Amino acid sequence: MGKRRGLEVSLAISEAVKLSRPDVIAAYPITPQTHIVEELAQMVADGELDSEFIMVESEHSAMSACCGASATGARAFTATASQGLALMHEVLFIASGLRLPIVMAVANRALSAPLSIWGDQSDIMAERDAGWIQVFAETGQDAFDLTIQSFRWAEDPRVLLPAIVNIDGFTLTHVIEPLEVESQEDIDSFLPPYDPPIRLDPEKPVSIGPVGFPEIYTEIKKQQNEALLGAYPVIVEVWEEFEKAFGRKYSPVEEFMTEDARIIICLAGAISGTARIAVEQMRSEGKKVGLLRIRLWRPFPFEDVRKALCKAEAVSVIDRALSFGGPGGPIFSEIRSALFPLDEKPSVLGFIAGLGGRDVTIENFREIVEETEQVLDGGEEFEYKMIGVRGD
Amino acid sequence: MAEKKTDFIPRILPLRELFAEGHRACQGCGEAIALRLLLKASGPDTIICSATGCTEIISSPYPQTAWRVPWIHVAFENAAAVASGVEAAIKTMRKKGRYHDRKINVIAIAGDGGTADIGLQALSGALERFHDFTYVCTDNEAYMNTGIQRSSATPYGASTTTSPSGRQSIGQSTQKKNVPLIAAAHEIPYVATCTPSYPFDLLDKARKAFETEGPCYLHVLTPCPTGWRFPSHLTIEYGRLAVQTGVFPLFEVIDGRFNINHSIEKRKPVIEYLKGQGRFRHLKEKEIEEIQRRVDEHCEKLMRLVKATS
What we know:
The structure holds two protein chains of two kinds. Chain A contains 13 helices and 16 strands. Chain A is α/β, with parallel strands linked by helices. In chain A, helix 3 runs parallel beside helix 4 and helix 10 crosses helix 13. The longest helix of chain A has 16 residues, at about 80-95. Chain A is globular. The termini of chain A are far apart. In chain A, about 55% of the residues are buried. The model of chain A has no long low-confidence stretch (mean pLDDT about 95). Chain B has a single domain (about 10-310), classed as Rossmann fold (3-Layer(aba) Sandwich). Helices cover about 35% and strands about 15% of the residues of chain B. In chain B, the strands form two sheets. An eight-stranded mixed beta sheet of chain B has the order 2-1-3-4-8-7-9-10, sandwiched between helices. A two-stranded antiparallel ribbon of chain B has the order 5-6. In chain B, helix 1 packs across helix 7 and helix 3 packs parallel to helix 5 (about 120-130). Chain B is globular, with a radius of gyration of 19 Å. Chain B starts with about 30 loop residues before the first helix and ends with a helix. In chain B, about 55% of the residues are buried. The chains are: A alpha/beta, B alpha/beta. Chains A and B meet through strand 3, helix 3, helix 4 and strand 9 of A and strand 1, strand 2, helix 3 and helix 5 of B. Strand 9 of chain A pairs parallel with strand 2 (about 70-75) of chain B.
């Protein structure tokens, strides 16, 4: 068993990274991610972490340096948020296309304009299709464990894809939580050193990142998609092994009081903490409400979602991001498409909440459930609504 | 001023071609000659980080490759950042016993667009962080891969597809960005200009760069028949004329000391370089006089730098 410690979640991630023994860390400061890399820099400075720490001049270069390092066979890590993630955008697709198992923590934050340093999930939703494995953490323990696990599934020879751990900016990154910090010895036996199938090495020259003409591009993209879809069983396998080693159970989606629920709230990230309390309160008042938290975002767990939601009458999906001029939120759109093939399917309603650091309160969850009930009871249907808007 | 050439003589030049024949460069491509020579100087213990551009396009049409050394291409503006990651990875993995101990030349290669324009930030960052690598700018003075668009390294008066000459335009109206001096301002141990028209000068400078610890910068003028619009058998000739007219002086900056490798005290008139190149065809006498004036000024400045730092 690990040692129980109270840690700021950012620092818990740094601790997880240190225990994962990365070879190269390349990073650039950006709120609310900065504590993660500050702590890693300190660990290197104190000789606690044997890594090359490259303090690059931009996030674009952070991801580029990670690509170079990973292609040379190094275990590479970076962390970013918001504008920094957006600046990396171009290289994210290249990292996955080159099948480089880089691990990145993203402290989810709103995108400018207007400039906002506060949390929501707009940044990562814009990178949804970058071809990375993606998970959302709810707690500090989640963030710690998922970081270590990410190296495992990213580097698995059956997968070889980069992986992102999403942690909500401030609401998760900056809170202090109690968590089990595992020993180096235990992590070493769970996570062996990265053994790349090819690497940049004069002993066996390879060319990485060539031009793909139309007669080959489609096939390469098909392979890449199959690798991402094929990551699902590997991720589940890693979780089973993790549970055996450390006793903590993980799954692609997490159900809370969904068994006989009429309405299931569905979301990703740290606001599920508040959602649980709201669900418990509403349950105590006799409302049949449940909660489904999406932990695995890419590859999207369609089957798990269907299984968890098929018996409900309605699903209220909460997004901390807005797809402008589109179907509301990205999670909403995924849930609806997951449920569409079912003959008898729940109504799916979208709610946009918690943008740019706006709190999502217990009251907001009640409001969401009430709105959903009204539709179920024959009220006016809607695609999605924005919750907690002042002056509405 | 020319340095004694001791490292390379024709009969001991490595025969092995590490940049393979059969690549897709245009006939008479100056860049392909430069790459071939660079790899002769670096040998097989080399890792190349290529920017998007002519070099990458001509050498890597999957499933073929012209590279007999490890090679990676990530994107356009980040060759220096990718090289930073490669260098750091080798350093740390070597320490941990997961990479062999042979000295490896990590080389970033980018064109003038990938260096003077879109890649300048990544280049500056990598030089400042003092990675042990060599950055090679193959300068053909425009975006040739995409069809001859102007870059900030396009010389004054050159007509390109996005700085065309016309009734009210002489073509490129700004002067060539001086990236070697920008690199030198980072106070790195070695900066040099060279061109495949002076192959032994290029080979010597490349070897110096590879042997020097810390970041080094090589600026290679690579005449481009397609973009400069001259017959493809004149590539070497135009490189020579660029040096002999003082348009592109060959110099080194070793630990801050400037050194000219091919005398520019007595120069041929610039008209000898300009004539015959389609990109300068539209220039009138007055404009050529202006180019001569600018070249003279640049050469004077360079000679003053030599004097001031000797």
